[in-house]
Amino acid sequence: MLDSGGEMRQQSFVIETKNGRRKRLKVRRLKYTCQTKVEVEITGGHKEYGSSELKRKVKDVGVPVKVLSVSFSSTENDIVLSSSSGSGSDERRKTSGGESLETLGRGTYGVVSVQGRRKVMEDAVRAEVGFPVNGSRGKFDFFGVYDGHGGADVARACRDRMHEVVAEAVELERIKNNKKDPVDWDWERVMEVCFGKMDEEVSGIAAARTVGATAVVAVVTEDQVVVGNCGDCRAVLSRGGVALALSSDHKPDRVDELKRIEAAGGKIINWNGNRVLGVLATSRSIGDKYMRPYVISKPEVTVTKRTEEDEFLILASDGLWDVISNEVACKVVNKCLDGRIRRISIHGEDHHHDHVRSHSTSEAAAVLADLAMARGSKDNISVIVVALSKTS
């Protein structure tokens, strides 16, 4: 039999055990999936590798890898990075709340997807660089961010198929109009066909009746940036230091969306925010068959001519945009790409006077995700940063 002191110690042990389990679960949720496209000079010439291949190659040849951990002060512009170089795993530093992030050289794009404070991961991302279209001039780069709700099935289906659907639609557009130059193509029609077909394909998924995903995709050609958006993911272009929104969020209370929904017989109900029929916080999505015709899959499309002042493109889910403005996001990425950041070594030495140029898009994407977490984002966070400067 335990005395009162023993009972108190036992209760204290149980409480500490529960708290420890909660902390482990919390850390487990804050995981990154990172991807970057870089060129690495290995014996035999240059070759492109994805992030997993790169880690294996770096290990094989013993190339030093820059390892970063990220933290933030109370001010939005004071970004502190801890960095080190080394090939040994014992020198790695963890990104706050996630796995270690490794970068080598400068990637054309960087991808970070974070589960964040959500119990499940419903975001999905895709990047396809340099896919050709027969008979057309040049190659295209494709980027997509998909934010699932009610489950991840539709977002994952979009991740696996949307880029292929776009490639097929682009090929048909070229053949139909016999035009080789993408500048002459009807991109609005192409994107509408793609989103419509993707919506039809996911209707075959049993869960798609009550599961959906918002989507923003970008096709980057030599002369244009084409963006198709359906929902509240967002695309932002940095041009000459100015943030330009290339998409407009489809929120139920947006004036034109509200009129469209009410004309179709639907209602907007304020239930923890404005929602279609009190359920969905977005007025457009892929899937969500039970919400038709109020919630539609038709995208809004913008075609932007590229200029010499274009610096980079950011695609992200609302887990980022709910807590970070377009302007702040562009400032943060600019600081990362230009090396205008305050660095602290693993030994705590302040090297903020050393303006070493990192030029890492993957690093910039990770910094944005961490900043969103630091500002209290409660959603999954997915970010793609694409370098557009023709001199990069």
TrEMBL record:
PANTHER family: PROTEIN PHOSPHATASE
SUPFAM superfamilies given in the database record: PP2C-like (SSF81606)
Record's protein name: protein-serine/threonine phosphatase
Name of a matching Pfam family: PP2C
Record region (Disordered): 79-102
Cofactors required: Mg(2+); Mn(2+)
Domain PPM-type phosphatase residue range list: 108-388
SMART domains (UniProt xref): PP2Cc
InterPro entries per UniProt: PP2C, PP2C_BS, PPM-type-like_dom_sf, PPM-type_phosphatase-like_dom
Claim: Repeat is one of the keywords in the record: no
Family (UniProt): Belongs to the PP2C family.
GO MF term (any one): metal ion binding
Keyword NADP: no
The entry's keywords: Hydrolase, Magnesium, Manganese, Metal-binding, Protein phosphatase
